[in-house]
Sequence to fold (261 residues):
Amino acid sequence: MPSIIKTTAFLSIIFILLFFLFIFSSPAIFTNPQQVLRSFSSIEVRFAIKLSLLTALIATIISISIATPAAYAISRYSFKGKTFVEGFLDIPMALPPVALGVMMLIFFARNPLGSFINNNIMPVIFNTPGIVIAQFAVVSALAVRLLKETFDGVPPRYEKIARTLGYTELEAFLHVTFPMAIKGFLATCLFVFARAMGEFGATLMLAGATRLKTETLPIAIYLSLAKGDLEGVAALSYVLLLISIITQIIIRKLLFKGAST
Fold:
């Protein structure tokens, strides 16, 4: 007889799977595969896909570039205020993106530094750079958290051995730590990219929702829903779902390739 705990555990898994299966399949009421394919011929959808890919890629590159040394420092070094820093970096992940977007809008509209950047360096509010900044604000802390866990999984003793063999600290990182963390690093890049692609709340607040200007895929869904285009909403939802599925498949291939089932 299976134990109560095991039975409950498997029933919980089945419940979660069925719940999301019903949710993911529900847009099919308003569309079909042919309509999803036809949606790619729309100028608006093609624009939204290109803009989403471009801004998410830029936000991912910036986030990973900054998060990698930050995550390594938090993982490897002890310093005063480390606990505060880790806790502080968790705040953007806990804060609703809409609230984060409102704060950034106020910063670039009213703060002297933010206003100077918006008026003299690059237009942020209701413009494409605002999309990148909003995506960066949402995914950067996530990138730090995921990369820290990746570096935590690499024993520091390998770096110490490399140092005894004459490697500098940078060389030890590049030739020892980073190659051992490469799967987690690539998985983090993909996860951060997918999260940036799906970012909505902060983008809406900072960059607005202007057709063929700041129209990312989530914004396109919002605009289609606002005008009652349920077929368009369903098709765009499946585009984002497809991107998420592909991303998750690649991530699992990277992380669990060769692992026992």
